[in-house]
Amino acid sequence: MLNLERLRTLDALARHGSVSAAADGLHVTTSAVSQQMAKLEREVGQQLLAKNGRGVRLTDTGRLLADHAARILSQVELAQSDIEARRGQAVGEVRIGAFPTAARGLFPAAVSFLRRDHAELRVISRELEPEAAVREVVRGDLDLAVVLDWSNKRLPVPGGLAQVQLLDDVPDVAMPADHPLAGRAEVDLEEFADDEWVSWPEGEFCHEWLVFTLRSKGFEPRIAHMAGEHHTQLALIAAGLGVCVAPRLGRGPVPEGVALVPVRQKMRRHVYAVWRTDADRRPSIRAAVEALRGAAEQQKG
């Protein structure tokens, strides 16, 4: 009989592509992954891994068994969902990820709601960029993720995921308090064509959105500084080092010397939760979604 944990290890290897990445995804050592695979090979009586340079690759038999493992693990997920749904209580563990401003703006209230209403449910949370969070939900490393896209740039969400809208986040333009446009009621992005910009790090979804959006306004942005944390971005603005787009969700106190002005043509970040459809019946998933909705309502208020 095939061992479920060894099949889970094989599935992780197939999804992550290397022993070290599979170990990270499973939160075990590389030695543990290698040992589980050696035992699985003995169980099936065939070679599942072959050397590939300094790494390994799945053999044809390994890929065949990995396909079966993915389906078996999906069925196990469905079984666990049905059992949890039959019990009707949110218990066990739920793993949630979110991009930084959502983690800061939603998680404190949402996790507090869950601790109050579902004392037997353990919540584990992580900060992750949207694309990485979606991948981890698909792989099963996260149960649920809070992600975003923009009104003019959508985030690709693969099939097999359910989603629910939490809120729309309307950002402003942050600029030094002595900027010529700081006293305006509204601004257009193209009015900042000659300014230096502070952006999210290159490769992040919001950085790509910013460059795409400013180019669509007819100018190439001069990005002078990159910072992942919005507090760092605003500190750079307070020092007179440029302008930036400043979302309202999770913003926190604005430092002295920074002016915030709404954009005339409203930009919106759509913030929503995603989870695997095969886990849809789990009370813990439904409880987490409701807690996030409650936290989002507080933000709207």
Output the keywords.
single chain, 44% helix, alpha/beta, 5-stranded mixed beta sheet, 301 residues, 9 helices, 3-stranded antiparallel beta sheet, 23% strand
How would the blueprint of this fold be written?
Layout: H1 4-16, H2 19-26, H3 30-44, E1 49-52, E2 55-58, H4 60-87, E3 92-98, H5 100-117, E4 121-127, H6 130-139, E5 144-150, E6 161-169, E7 172-176, E8 196-199, H7 205-216, E9 222-226, H8 230-238, E10 244-246, E11 258-262, E12 269-276, H9 283-300
Parallel strand pairs: 3-4, 3-5, 8-9
Antiparallel strand pairs: 1-2, 5-12, 6-12, 7-10, 7-11
Give a description of the structure.
- It is a single chain.
- By secondary structure, the chain is α/β, with parallel strands linked by helices.
- It contains nine helices and twelve strands.
- It has a five-stranded mixed sheet, sandwiched between helices. A three-stranded antiparallel sheet has the order 10-7-11. Strands 1-2 form a two-stranded antiparallel sheet.
- The relative contact order is 0.16.
